[in-house]
Amino acid sequence: MKTIIKTTLIALIAITVISCGNKTEKKETPSKKTEQQETHQHKSEQVIQLNGGNPWDANIETTQGIENMKKLMNDFSDTENTEAYLLLKSNLEKEFGTIISECTMEGESHNQLHNYLVPMRELFKDLASKDLQKCKETYAKLNQHLAEYSTYFK
Question: pTM for the complete prediction?
Fold first, then answer.
């Protein structure tokens, strides 16, 4: 009986330590601008955090995939056609799939990449809207989101 209690107690302590991670590290009181740069939150998503004030290291395939997505966005010119946004969505999703399939990141940098990538799925979905104004707004949001990659990853 004592062995079961000890084992359970050790397991609970281990789970607590693992789940807390680096949440106890000291932080200086940042300015409002620094706070905005260090964390970025999307509706119902996890907060993207910097690595102690610095960008996380990302694998080259991820960074190249994001660059390819930025190029697709920059090359997009048919802004008055919802069908063109649908094609853009398809091309962006292909790059997104490549990022996912070629990701070799692990640990906290991988978790933060996940926090960065998840909101893109909703944006992709909104690019398929039949409402031209919604497509345009989503395009602007996605463009901004892609521009923020270099804030959080290098």
Answer: 0.70
